[in-house]
Amino acid sequence: MKMDEEMRQPEEMVSVIDGKKVQEILVGRYLNVVIVDHTDFMRLMLKEDYRIRHNFMMLIGQWFICLSSSSEWDERNEGSVKLSCKLKPELSKTNLWPWVTYGDSAPNEVSVSGHQTESVERLFAAYLSKTEWEICNPFRQFLVAMQKEDRTLQQILTRFAVEWCDWVVKEEKEIQGESYRIASLIASIPSVLL
Fold first, then answer.
1. Cα–Cα distance between 89 and 141 in angstroms, integer?
2. What gap in Å lies between CA 89 and CA 91, rounded to an integer?
3. Rounded distance, CA 194 to CA 189, Å?
């Protein structure tokens, strides 16, 4: 009964440039549920424009760099921190800057229900396309919010990131760009503790 009520959460309008709110919805509401199969989300994301998928990979790269410098961790996110530390030397040599998509047609607000895959993916894709608004780092709000997040949720995001990298390596063989290289690197490191 409780799960049915949660699944029928009312929709809310969310600003796509509010990285903290996007992080809360993607990680705190959508990923932080019992359902661990993200196949539908991954399939929807693979249909997005290459620049959006590229920006997703850049966000993942920046997340691993941030997590590798974490001085506070425990058994809840130990695997994520160890994986991040293994990836940091190579990722530090990489330009993890997203595509800047001035004048992108993505909406400035998206109607979202926290557990509906389509609406969460639509919000995240719009967020990833709105990179012109924060010149210093478009993903800063998202990353700062994640660093303050519960360690279990940090582990959940890391698993999701590794899953996306596996999908990229499997599905985007014809695209040999920076995103594919980063995904291949991340997918090549055994992530046993995740």
1. 24
2. 6
3. 12
Residues 6+ apart with CB under 8 A from 86: 189
Instruction: For residue 55, give the 3-state DSSP assignment.
Output: helix
Model pLDDT for residues 154-175, shown as the tens digit of each residue: 999 999 999 999 999 998 765 6
One-letter amino acid of 6 = E
Residue 162 near residue 41, CB atoms below 8 Å: no
Provide the 8-state DSSP code for 24: I
- Residue 193: both structure tokens together: 């503790």
Q: Which of 157, 11, 185 is nearest to 70 (CA)?
A: 157
Compute the distance between CA of residue 140 and CA of residue 18 in angstroms, rounded to an integer. Answer: 10
What are the phi and psi torsion angles at 67 (to 5°)?
A: -65, -30
188 pLDDT tier (thresholds 50, 70, 90): very high
Closest by CA to 25, choosing from 157, 137, 129, is 157
Q: What are phi and psi of 110, to 5 degrees?
A: -130, 140
How far is it, in rounded angstroms, from Cα 76 to Cα 65?
18
Q: Judge contact between 178 and 53, C-beta under 8 A.
A: no
Q: What share of the chain is helix, strand, coil (3-state, %, to 5)?
A: 60, 5, 35
Place of tokens 């695209």: 175
pLDDT in tens, 95-141: 888 776 656 677 889 999 877 999 999 999 999 988 766 555 678 89
